[in-house]
Design brief:
Blueprint lengths: L1 H22 L2 E8 L1 H4 L2 E2 L14 E5 L16 E2 L1 H13 L3 E7 L21 H6 L13 H15 L8 E9 L11 H20 L9 E4 L10 H13 L3 E4 L15 H17 L40
Helix pairs in contact: 3-8, 5-6, 6-7
Length: 321
């Protein structure tokens, strides 16, 4: 009998790490922006470690529709930096996590910087109160900011609030700015208003005080881009210096596709890894940083990609599904 008790006790102790992990709130990560957030590099350049897909990622894109439900992430024709980031989050956590995306190419924050047929990220108090969320039809809604925040609210109502372990929104990851180059003088206020609106909307749904200053991480625009604006970049730096928990990743020397607008495969991967490392640095992922080097200069066959680093995996508490 004593031997049986010892075995039961040992088994219980062995289960403690798994039980502790199961009780941790599910991590939620948000990605948003314009085309470099949406992804413009073709999947024939997909990093080898992404070709097997994901095991623990629960994914939804709320750009033009939202039912609050998550599913598997399936690659279409292109991939983005967040796909790389999600891979390394998965390797670190080895447990279910949730990713919400809202991205639309060619979109601006300033309504005067874009075309009438495109939705915008404007969060000016007066404008956003008069406009509905974009849901695939510009005639019924123009706001991408509301598409994101209302899409997040749908996810909470339909899925996240029903998770037995609860959920925790970790960060918003962002890339945008090219389309605002003609209204760069307004970008400081526009960018600041948008970040504050997003944070307040998340806080209104979660009720967690920390979400009033939810970490916001963005990549800058490459100086090689034909849509680079010094004014936009300076406004972004100013916002990062003034608002709490706003951080940037320097992409000023990033290599681009032949369109001279979008990150090539190596730099898409670079930004994805740097986003992951920033999440680790801020303790928004329980993992270790990975080694990252800037891609080498382009060769005739295209930009060479550095070998992928891999974060240290947890030894215990691995979820199965």
């Amino acid at each position: 009998m004593t031997r049986l008790k010892d075995i039961v006790a040992a088994a219980a102790l062995a289960l403690l790490p798994a039980l502790a992990m199961a009780q941790e709130p599910a991590a939620v990560y948000i990605t948003a922006g314009q085309s470099n957030a949406d992804g413009r590099e073709y999947v024939d350049k997909l990093p080898h470690y992404l070709k097997g897909g994901y095991r623990y990622l629960n994914y939804t894109n709320v750009t033009s529709a939202s039912d609050g439900k998550f599913g598997d992430m399936k690659f279409g024709k292109r991939f983005a930096f967040c796909d790389v980031t999600n891979h390394f989050i998965e390797q670190a956590l080895q447990a279910d996590f949730y990713a919400i995306k809202c991205a639309y190419g060619g979109t601006a924050i300033d309504t005067a910087a874009t075309y009438s047929h495109l939705p915008v990220w404007c969060a000016d108090a007066g404008w956003i109160s008069r406009n509905n969320a974009y849901r695939g039809d510009i005639n019924t809604g123009k706001s991408l900011t509301k598409a994101l925040t209302e899409g997040f609210a749908d996810c909470v109502d339909s899925t996240l609030s029903k998770l037995p372990q609860g959920y925790d929104v970790k960060a918003i990851m962002w890339h945008q700015g090219e389309s605002d180059r003609k209204q760069a003088a307004h970008y400081y206020k526009n960018f600041k208003d948008m970040i504050n609106y997003m944070r307040n909307a998340v806080y209104a749904k979660t009720g967690k005080e920390k979400d009033k200053t939810l970490p916001f991480i963005f990549g800058t625009v490459s100086h090689k881009s034909k849509q680079y604006s010094k004014g936009v970049e300076e406004a972004q730096m100013r916002v990062a210096a003034e608002l709490p928990n706003v951080y940037y990743i320097d992409m000023s020397d990033a290599g681009l596709l032949p369109d001279v607008l979008h990150f090539d495969s190596a730099w898409t991967e670079y930004l994805g890894k740097q986003m992951y490392n920033k999440l680790v640095e801020l303790k928004l992922v329980d993992g270790e940083k990975i080694a990252v080097q800037k891609p080498s200069k382009p060769h005739p066959g295209g930009t060479q990609r550095q070998p992928a680093g891999r974060p240290k995996q947890r030894a215990a508490g691995k979820a199965e599904r």
